[in-house]
Amino acid sequence: MKYRSRTDIALAVLEAAASGATQIKIMYSAYLSYAQVKDYLSVLSANGLIEYIAGELVYRTTSKGMKLLEQIKHAGEIMLDPVNDQPAK
Predict the structure, then answer these.
(1) How far apart are alpha carbons 11 and 59 in whole angstroms?
(2) Which residue has the higher pLDDT, 82 or 80?
(3) Structural domain of residue 61, as residue ranges?
(4) Are 46 and 40 a contacting pair, CB within 8 Å?
(5) Residue 86: inside a domain, yes or no?
(6) Which of 9, 12, 26, 54 is the most core-located residue (most Cβ within 10 A)?
């Protein structure tokens, strides 16, 4: 697996929790260890990007987190060269 930045990993966690996911599902979806997923969930929760729903025992990406995901995907689309979908030089 290639190197991923903290931002890439945080986005993977937000995507995994978009429709609600347990900690284990997020861990496997984002390819993280137990210690890593705990760290990312804590940071994302503190910033209001993800929430824990105790009654359902799942984490869910908040509207603020969904907005961030959309903005980052949009920025990625802008950075692609429209001719061959390769990064612009």
Answers:
(1) 14
(2) 80
(3) 6-79
(4) no
(5) no
(6) 26
